[in-house]
Design brief:
The chain is mainly alpha-helical. The protein is built from 16 helices and three strands. The chain has three domains: 2-50, Ubiquitin-like (UB roll) (Roll); 57-130; 147-407, Receptor-associated Protein (Up-down Bundle), CATH 1.20.81.
């Protein structure tokens, strides 16, 4: 997108000068044709007027709308609407201030659709990055005349989800980096350090201990096959990542990851927190329970938990309460089920689900902390043990030779 200047003739034959924001000269002509203007000359933008960000979005090179950018946009829009700023003016202000090219273009298109008479929810549904949960909540807010309140709830909900995901990523970052660095150090020792000892040990002519022989054999194996093993390692990782992105691979990985010690519990609790928070937000906005469950299923990361919630939805459609099918899910805590039951009985299920989400968030915090504290020493001990074994294997024959000479 860029600013194109033009010279044209209006329907009355009067010469006019103007400018239009468009992606190409072809689009400029199309826009002016709709306005009944006959184009005489189009002046393309100079390099200083060219919007690189918009061009990257048009060509598909720009990054997608990030969760943090969308959360900030939602919060700012809520503040403006709450302050009484008209929706179109709010979108115009946010468009000018937005830095993310993808979101900037989306805001522009939303404003254009709203200006043509569409609702905000309809305009957002046409844009990538605004999921079903987001659009349904906005729709409910528009219908109830409480759009600013719904946007505030939505912003809070998104921030909580982002916080949980960030916690899990940061908890796994340190162990992953330490493991990778340790693997590189061990590989470098086997390929470059151990061979330096082999010549010296052969010169002594003594019989080598089994552990030294084993390390030397392993070193020769790494030295011979590293040109194949290293690329194969990265290809294997890339293939695995590609596989778990497929529907079948995703189900397999979700099943396996949920059974990991501690990490599996983090995944389960994080998904249940997301489910409870999303369902609470939707019910609080006046969305029907069946529709709310439908949206929750789409927002869950785990296909295993999503499939279980599909079964819950079926039972609710058959006339069961929400508590009954949830109590049949083995990883859903009994205490939480009872809390939801109380919410159903008192007619405050959205508030109770909010408390349930907080319970799960607290448990995720504790599990992440425990996992980090447990993994760090285990990784350090294992890697340190391997490195120490290599060093002992190399120096042991020298100590044995020195001992025999001293005797």
């Amino acid at each position: 997108m860029a600013i194109y200047k033009y010279e044209a003739v209006d329907p009355n034959g009067k010469k006019i000068l103007g400018q239009v924001d468009a992606a190409s000269e072809k689009e400029v002509r199309k826009i002016l044709r709709v306005q009944g203007v006959r184009v005489k000359k189009i002046i393309p933008p100079t390099i200083l007027e060219f919007d690189l960000g918009m061009w990257m979005v048009d060509k598909g090179f720009a990054s997608a709308i990030g969760a943090k950018d969308l959360s900030n946009f939602t919060k700012q829009l809520a503040i403006m609407i709450s302050a009484g700023v008209p929706i179109l003016q709010s979108l115009e202000i946010l468009y000018r201030a937005e830095k993310n090219p993808s979101l900037k273009l989306a805001i522009k298109k939303i404003a254009a659709d709203v200006g043509e008479g569409k609702t905000i929810a309809e305009a957002m549904q046409a844009q990538k990055g605004f999921d079903k949960l987001y659009c349904n909540l906005v729709k409910a807010g528009e219908a109830g005349g409480i759009l600013d309140q719904i946007l505030k709830k939505l912003s809070t909900h998104m921030e909580k989800q982002q916080k949980t995901k960030s916690q899990i990523k940061s908890a796994m970052m340190y162990p992953t980096i330490v493991t990778l660095v340790g693997m590189v150090v061990i590989w470098a020792m086997m390929v470059f350090v151990v061979p330096q000892f082999v010549g010296m040990l052969k010169e002594t002519g003594q019989e080598l201990p089994w552990i030294t022989s084993f390390v030397i054999d392993a070193s020769e194996f790494f030295g011979t096959y590293s040109p194949v093993m290293v690329p194969a390692f990265f290809v294997a990782i890339a293939s695995f990542v590609s596989y778990i992105k497929t529907p079948t691979g995703k189900i397999f990985w979700d099943n396996v990851s949920m059974r990991f010690p501690l990490f599996g519990q983090v995944i389960v609790k994080a998904n249940l927190s997301s489910f409870s928070n999303t369902l609470s937000t939707l019910l609080g906005a006046g969305v029907a329970l069946i529709d709310a469950l439908d949206i929750c299923i789409e927002t869950l990361d785990s296909t295993v938990i999503a499939n279980d919630i599909k079964e819950v939805k079926k039972k609710v459609m058959e006339g069961k309460t929400l508590t009954e099918p949830l109590s049949k899910i083995e990883y859903f805590p009994e205490l939480v089920t009872q809390m939801i039951r109380v919410g159903e009985q008192t007619g405050q299920i959205d508030q109770m689900l909010l408390r349930v989400a907080q319970v799960f968030e607290d448990e995720v915090d504790e599990l992440v902390s425990s996992m980090t504290k447990m993994l760090e020493p285990i990784i350090i001990v294992v890697l340190g043990g391997i490195i120490a074994t290599i060093l002992v294997a190399m120096y042991l024959p020298m100590f044995m030779s020195a001992g025999a000479s001293g005797g």
